[in-house]
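Hello again, I could really use a second opinion on something today. I've been puzzling over a protein and I'd love to understand its fold better. I'm sending you its amino acid sequence along with the backbone structure tokens. It would help a lot if you went through both lines with me. I've dropped the whole record in just underneath, so have a look.
***
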Amino acid sequence: MKARKLMALPIVALLTLSFGQQSFAATTPFTDLNHVAAKEKIIALQEKGYVHGVDANRYMPEAVMTAAQGIQLIVNALSLEADPTQTGKPTLNVDPGEWYADVLQIAIQNGIELPADFDPNKSWTREEFIHQLMVGMEKKNHLPMIKIAPVEFADSDELTVEYQGAIQRAIVLKIVQLDADRKLHPKEELTRADAAELIYHALEYLQAHPGPAADTPKS
């Protein structure tokens, strides 16, 4: 697994995405994307107001995300909202004063299952993020269940068993792209560039295939 030496960024430096945000033209291009494969996708998200850098000129694409930051990104990207009717949902043993406390609860209320020993400060892997992104998409948008033929790829034996279904669906729906060697790199730490590319494809898919629940208010 490729080593990542960059520390996870604080919450203020995260991607922030919302369908409700007003679009705006990027006034200053990021200067640290020249050698990033997802450069055009990051810029496209920035121009729509979905992605922000750590400052006016830097995106820091190789910085890693923690589990709490990844959950916040999914909640924001999918416009998940708190549901006061879901009072019976389990809660995590987290300090209610932490910035991520409400975000985690919103995720749980929207069907994203987090383990009791969820560590918000743990660096998230690609497979963990992909799995939770797919769960969030499917729950929020009521995506139809489809029969798929499992896709073979070079490092499929590295997948965590419980993530296999969601990741296979993500590949079939083209939310996830395998590399030139047909590898997914599931155990690599999630970077801001990784997250932006996955979010780009997820939003692209949802815009082309809006689910029946997308415009249906909760009762």
Residues 1-8, 10-28, 213-219 have pLDDT under 50 and may be disordered.
